[in-house]
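Same chain as my last thread, 260 residues:
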Amino acid sequence: MRVLAIGDVCGPAGCETVRRILPNLKKDKKIDMVIINGENSADGNGILPESAEYLFSCGADVITGGNHSLRRKQVFNYLDENDFVLRPQNLPEAECGKGYCFIDLGFTTAAVINLSGIIYLEKLGASNPFEAADDLIERADKDGAKIIIVDFHAEATSEKRALGLYLDGRVSAVFGTHTHVQTADEQVLKNGTGYITDIGMTGPIDSVLGVKSEIIINRLKNNDMSKFEQAEGRCMLCGCIFDVDVSTGKTSSAKRICIK
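reply #2:
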């Protein structure tokens, strides 16, 4: 089967880019399952029921999250009600949502796991992602998932790489999100797990991680703490396609994409 993971969708412009590109991409690449990181899909930041439903209408099967998943209170009930909208499992004292889902695709079954990193994200107070991964993989195995995909929402490349190697052979694929910068290290690890450190973002190209560049430059140069505003103009969709053998759960190829 072919799994498409799409990187952090940035606001309305990112959502519109998904709608513009995803339907034909699914058809052309014969995609069987789509996972989209939507933690910043709402206007401003965070995720709302409306932005999640928009991504589902574009073709998402599962929406994963990150450090902004619980920023908007309006989404709390929705996270409990929709089994296929996730937030990192190891967020502290999270009273709503979950970081795991099981999906029956008919011809096979899959589990999607969403975790948060710790390095440079200490303020989140997330628990150990390695232990959380162990627990959720055990759950996926008990549920009978043939394929297991992990979205690791983390800042440090070393932490992402370490988790990927730790899970090699135990899950089908590990992809990183959060930095909004796509890395060029997509590969199949030695025990059959597809891996990429970060799949990038979906949103405005002429920006700093989706935000108007002048705002970020002034913040870094002049300590100007003006409110973030989403950039405008041409957009891109970044992600990675994993080819997974449904009989073994192993990945045979991983290929990053960036469509403008």
